[in-house]
Amino acid sequence: MPAATVNGLTVSSGLAELTTVPIVGAPLAGGPSTAALAAAVSEAGGLGFLAAGYKSALAVESQLAELRALTSRPFGLNLFYPVRGTVDESAIAGYAERMRTEGKRYGVAPGEPRWTDDDWRAKLELAARERPDVLSFAFGCPDRETVEWLRECGCRVWCTVTSAAEAAHAAAATVDALVVQGAEAGGHQSSFHDGDEQPRPLLALLAEVRGATDLPLIATGGIAGAADVDAALTEGAIAAQVGTALLLTTEAGTSEPHRQALRSARETRLTRAFTGRRARGIVNRFMLEHDPFAPRGYPQIHAVTAPIRAAARRLGDAGGINLWAGTAYQRAEDGSASELVERWGHALRG
Prior knowledge:
With 350 residues, this protein is an alpha/beta fold. It contains 12 helices and 13 strands.
């Protein structure tokens, strides 16, 4: 893809209208995402993202207004694509019963297992009205008609993929770019179908996806420094999406027990224990005790454990909450997100 020079840094022409630094802030749904964080990344020359996941359309609209008050720079909005897969209802009910004992630890009852589309239609209509510069999707890709409608409304459309097959599917839907998520990424695996396949390491996956499509690629997973960004660019990405590296920043809404865990030296694993969908986090008590019994079932299991995790978070108990983190989480730093993006951009300029 052709490139342009912006402030001394070579930026893909597909990204030059949006950024001066080839760094994208991951959406970080579930608490860490704030308007202040997205604005800080954008103001520093990257592309900040606001997460719409787990929020009502009305709440997202309010945060978009807050974000626009903080920056006039381009930004993105991320939505969860609703997938209703086949689940074992009896296994989900059994796990919900198991969570009653866990809930007693914090003086709360587990939630009821239920499927929801996360206010899908209302959020799509909001995006069409508000027209964020980029609208990205996780867990799946809208059909071609929906993608073309969103593009006609003025949004660039990105889709997160974890395989060459998903990349080809998204390309057929006429998306503008692909966010390629490697195994190293923290939080949920954004695969279209939540199977048990071993996720591919980022650089290997980039090569596979690059062979399946000519679309611009944004790399994500294990990006914790300018050298990681440079490695992704070398493998054909036009930018790197940063998630875990932003969790300790002052603008992030990361809870205090989560922040403390990010300063530890424990391993990370993929687990369904918290939400019913595979996600990478720092190993803690909850994961060790419940992962062997956790069935596939998202967002049903998320609804079951949400009240328990909220109570544990209020009490500052890192043993009872999801500690989403990528494999390079120990390299996350305290400080301002804008300073981090600026520093990485300076290092990339050499």
